[in-house]
């Protein structure tokens, strides 16, 4: 690979619950005269997927349990928000001022179980959750693109996650379809003949992070980008492949 291209998809409207996101993406690609080719990858921001699917909660309708009140006291968070975080989590990993690190029901270790106020736009007390099944969301978008453009198009759903021992957040794959998220390099020689023993490339995360450069994390309004020129291995996808076995997770 000598070059790659990341193309922002313009014309995607403010997504609201109940909208058919795959159709919106197909129409935006047609309007921009961008035709996906074999090997292209469409990366879609989690927020628009969640909003379209109705994965949102109005905190005005939430009654916090006792544990939520206790953790709210430790973190300074709204007890109603903490209650939603607990509902989305299988366990609380760390508690700190203004943040809860939890294991999300999908297996991700992340801040506040991915529950977020930003870029929701459905009311001051409405928060966004991660999609119920991001892989299924990716498959639905991939199928719609394949039918519309008569070519297979891999799809990644990305979200911004922090990383242990590093400042800042980067785009991370939370759902995938049409490509293998991991590529093992074990057994291959490097350029000097050394045989790689443990190297596994998280291709889906690399693509998710690259897409964030155009998607942004603030007010950019660019929830989908097309990546072209990056060789990927076709496969069923599945972001669960990117999750490390807890027995081998040295950061917990």
From TrEMBL:
<keyword id="KW-0436">Ligase</keyword>
<keyword id="KW-0547">Nucleotide-binding</keyword>
<dbReference type="InterPro" id="IPR008225">
    <property type="entry name" value="F420-0_g-glutamyl_ligase"/>
</dbReference>
<keyword id="KW-0464">Manganese</keyword>
<dbReference type="GO" id="GO:0046872">
    <property type="term" value="F:metal ion binding"/>
</dbReference>
<dbReference type="GO" id="GO:0052618">
    <property type="term" value="F:coenzyme F420-0:L-glutamate ligase activity"/>
</dbReference>
<keyword id="KW-0460">Magnesium</keyword>
<keyword id="KW-0342">GTP-binding</keyword>
<dbReference type="InterPro" id="IPR002847">
    <property type="entry name" value="F420-0_gamma-glut_ligase-dom"/>
</dbReference>
<keyword id="KW-0630">Potassium</keyword>
<feature type="domain" description="Coenzyme F420:L-glutamate ligase-like">
    <location>
        <begin position="12"/>
        <end position="229"/>
    </location>
</feature>
<protein>
    <submittedName>
        <fullName>Coenzyme F420-0:L-glutamate ligase</fullName>
        <ecNumber>6.3.2.31</ecNumber>
    </submittedName>
</protein>
<keyword id="KW-0479">Metal-binding</keyword>
<dbReference type="GO" id="GO:0005525">
    <property type="term" value="F:GTP binding"/>
</dbReference>
<dbReference type="Pfam" id="PF01996">
    <property type="entry name" value="F420_ligase"/>
</dbReference>
């Amino acid at each position: 690979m000598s070059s790659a291209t990341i193309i922002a998809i313009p014309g995607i409207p403010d997504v609201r619950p109940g909208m058919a996101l795959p159709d919106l993406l197909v129409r935006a690609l047609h309007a921009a005269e961008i035709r996906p080719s074999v090997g292209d990858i469409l990366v879609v921001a989690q927020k628009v997927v969640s909003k379209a699917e109705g994965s949102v909660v109005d905190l005005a309708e939430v009654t916090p349990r006792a544990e939520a009140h206790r953790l709210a006291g430790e973190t300074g968070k709204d007890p109603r928000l903490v209650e939603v975080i607990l509902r989305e989590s299988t366990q609380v990993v760390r508690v700190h001022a203004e943040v809860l690190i939890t294991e999300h029901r999908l297996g991700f270790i992340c801040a506040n179980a991915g529950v977020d106020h930003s870029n929701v736009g459905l009311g001051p007390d409405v928060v966004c959750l991660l999609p119920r099944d991001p892989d299924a969301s990716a498959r639905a978008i991939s199928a719609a693109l394949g039918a519309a453009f008569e070519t297979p198009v891999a799809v990644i759903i990305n979200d911004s996650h922090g990383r242990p021992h590093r400042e800042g957040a980067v785009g991370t794959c939370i759902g995938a379809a049409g490509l293998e998220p991991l590529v093992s390099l074990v057994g291959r020689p490097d350029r000097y003949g050394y045989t790689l023993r443990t190297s596994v490339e998280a291709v889906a995360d690399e693509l998710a992070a690259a897409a964030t450069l155009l998607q942004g994390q603030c007010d950019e309004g660019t929830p989908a980008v097309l990546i072209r020129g990056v060789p990927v291995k076709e496969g069923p996808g599945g972001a669960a492949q990117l999750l490390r076995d807890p027995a081998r997770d040295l950061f917990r």
